[in-house]
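seq as requested:
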Amino acid sequence: MKLSRNSSIRSTKSESSLSPPKRSNSVDSKPNTTTTKPTRSNSTSSLSRPPSDLSTGSASRTRPRNPDGAARVNGPDAGAVKKPTTNSEIRAWYNQKVASIPANDAKLKAQGASLEDRAKAAVKTRHDARLEARKFMSNPFEVAMLKARDFFTYGRLDGPSFDQLVNKAKGNKLTGDAVYQSLIDSSKRTNQTVNNHFNQQAKL
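struct tokens:
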């Protein structure tokens, strides 16, 4: 049996209409499904921060400088604005320390301290001032001379001890509270000959 040409063409068309369309592998034919996420703007938060915080992201903790504190002396006289350098300035500093002994002694007396404790405090103030004044001196030869003088006088490089001063007062026939009172009184006095020597140096 022979089929006519028209029937074969008709059957071919019907088969093509029933078959599903073929998928294209072309890149251009794919739909664009990429979505962009909205970005957050930090312009408002950045503007609200101080300039010093933009890099660190933390609150500013910068402390203001204290130029007055930087000029103060860290050491025996932290309250001084200028460190004494010349011998006359160092002697003036020493005399100022010694001049504070009466006020400190009156304070201890008002607090009910014993006469012996007041004498120890006065001697210690005088002794500490002696050592600190020598630290200010820039000439090591002069410091060595002062230490040698103390050694030949008291047997010590840093001046007399409290017990030595007590024994010296007792050797002057003082007894009891009179010994300690003499130590307080002598601690208030400086060597006037040495003061005149350094004052004369300052005038040269």
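DSSP finds ten helices and no strands in the chain.
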